[in-house]
Structures are given as structure tokens and as C-alpha cells.
């Protein structure tokens, strides 16, 4: 997949306002410590690196550490890590190992922010993060065909799991099979467009033409990506992930 540099810049500018600033404010304005727990082969790893660009302290966890939930929680306690970025499934394991426990006398430090991505978030993980004082979760959704992150939503925004709303300079359409918008509350396929949209698949023009189609709601010549994901828009504008259209 060929993505433009401007997509990464757009994501950074979005995260400054929507993620970085609120997390910094919750920590009293100080520089934060972030655990880099994602393989550099995965585009999600850029999310932690953008904190470094912003002047924060990023702890790069090696393969052995990031695969060991108990050891990773102990590392976060020992180094007072403020931000962790993991899949929801791994977040559940970390929570079971005490990630959200807080007891300074016993050396237990609770992160201020748990970033989630890569798969659907369970009700259990969402509710635990929402109810834990001093910590919140933020779910980031994005296919490879859009530069890393496309949608985002916080546990402070919703009582139930959500993929949130489009990041800056990004459009999300919920459409039927005839590419017509469906009413809020009705399921439809998610199509995305905007600054972070990929140019297509390298040397695969046929597949590119199939998945990147003309955007009837944008400017002439603009395209949108057909995600294959089934979503539903709430009355408040937040989007809920329902599954795949081919399930």
C-alpha cells in the first residue's frame, strides 16, 4: 500500500489536539513517559513515535518484554509509564496482571492513558478503563489503506465501545450497496476519504480500482476507500463497529 507523507503529518496534528494535549493536561502538564510496545514492522508503531516528536520520553520495549504481560506491567510500574498502546486483547491481559492497580507505597503506578487499536474492543475492557479513576482509554481505528488512524473515540465520550469519529481532514460515509447514505442507527458499509487516503496498491491496478472508488460526495476526481467494515452511526455522530460485510 502506497500512502502519502501528508497523511502522517495530518495524523500528528490531529493527535496533538485529540490525544496528546488531554493526556498532558491529565498529568499536570509534565512530559510523559510512553511505552513503545508495537513491532516497528507494524504501522501502528508510528503512534508512539509521534510522542517522541512532541518531546516526550518513549521507552522502546524489546520483543521479549512486550510479549510478557506480567513483565510489561512490572516495567510500567518501575518506570512510571503514563501511556500504553496495545490491542484490546492484550489490554485485557495487562489489566489482569494489574496494569490499572494504583498503590504508590507498593510501587504500583497506573497509566493515565491506554491507547487501543487493531481489533474490536470488548465491553469488559472499555468499561474497566471508563470506570478506573485517573485513567481513560482511547480507541483508534484505521485500515492500512488510510494512513494508520482514520477514526478515534475515548472512553470519556461513550459508555460503550465505539470507533468514534473521523480524525481531522477525514470523511467517513456509512453507505448501502448502492452507495447511498443510510440513516443514523442503521448498519451500512464504511467508506473513508481524506488527506490520509492511500494512493493504492503498488503494482496492482486492478485491486486498486476495485477498492478505491470515485467519491460521489467529494470534489471531482477524489476517491474513497471501501473498507468492507459494517458500522452504525449513533445520533451523537459516533460510529460503532459491527463486523465485516463478508461475515
Please sum up the structure shown.
The chain has helices spanning 5-26, 46-53, 63-66, 69-78, 88-96, 123-131, 205-211, and strands spanning 33-36, 57-60, 83-86, 113-117, 136-141, 151-154, 165-166, 170-175, 187-194, 212-214, 223-233, 239-244. The chain is of the alpha/beta class and 247 residues long.
Structure notes:
The protein is of the alpha/beta class and 247 residues long. It has two domains: 5-166, Rossmann fold (3-Layer(aba) Sandwich); 170-244, Luciferase, Domain 3 (Luciferase, domain 3, Roll), CATH 2.30.38. Helices cover 28% and strands 26% of the residues. The chain is built from seven helices and twelve strands. A seven-stranded mixed β-sheet has the order 2-1-3-4-5-6-7, with helices on both faces. Strands 8, 9, 10, 11 and 12 form a five-stranded antiparallel β-sheet that branches. Strand 4, helix 6 (123-131) and strand 5 (136-141) form a beta-alpha-beta unit. The longest helix is centred in the first third of the chain and has 22 residues, at 5-26. The model has no long low-confidence stretch (mean pLDDT 95).
Amino acid at each position: 500500500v502506497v500512502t502519502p507523507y501528508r497523511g502522517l503529518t495530518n495524523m500528528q496534528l490531529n493527535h496533538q489536539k485529540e490525544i496528546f494535549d488531554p493526556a498532558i493536561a491529565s498529568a499536570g502538564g509534565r512530559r510523559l513517559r510512553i511505552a513503545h510496545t508495537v513491532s516497528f514492522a507494524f504501522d501502528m508503531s508510528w503512534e508512539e513515535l509521534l510522542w517522541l516528536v512532541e518531546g516526550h520520553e518513549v521507552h522502546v520495549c524489546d520483543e521479549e518484554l512486550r510479549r510478557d504481560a506480567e513483565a510489561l506491567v512490572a516495567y510500567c510500574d518501575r518506570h512510571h509509564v503514563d501511556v500504553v498502546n496495545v490491542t484490546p486483547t492484550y489490554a485485557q491481559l495487562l489489566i489482569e496482571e494489574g496494569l490499572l492497580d494504583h498503590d504508590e507505597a507498593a510501587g504500583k503506578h497506573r497509566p493515565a492513558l491506554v491507547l487501543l487499536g487493531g481489533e474490536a474492543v470488548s465491553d469488559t475492557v472499555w468499561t474497566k478503563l471508563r470506570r478506573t479513576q485517573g485513567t481513560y482509554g482511547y480507541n483508534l481505528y484505521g485500515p492500512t489503506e488510510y494512513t494508520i488512524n482514520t477514526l478515534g473515540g475515548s472512553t470519556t465520550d461513550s459508555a460503550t465501545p465505539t470507533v468514534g469519529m473521523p480524525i481531522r481532514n477525514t470523511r467517513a460515509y456509512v453507505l448501502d450497496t448502492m452507495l447511498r447514505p443510510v440513516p443514523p442507527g442503521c448498519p451500512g458499509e464504511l467508506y473513508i476519504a481524506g488527506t490520509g487516503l492511500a494512493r493504492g496498491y503498488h503494482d496492482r491496478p486492478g485491486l486498486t480500482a476495485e477498492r478505491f472508488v470515485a467519491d460521489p460526495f467529494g470534489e471531482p476526481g477524489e476517491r474513497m476507500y471501501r473498507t468492507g467494515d459494517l458500522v452504525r452511526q449513533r445520533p451523537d455522530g459516533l460510529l460503532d463497529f459491527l463486523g465485516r460485510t463478508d461475515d
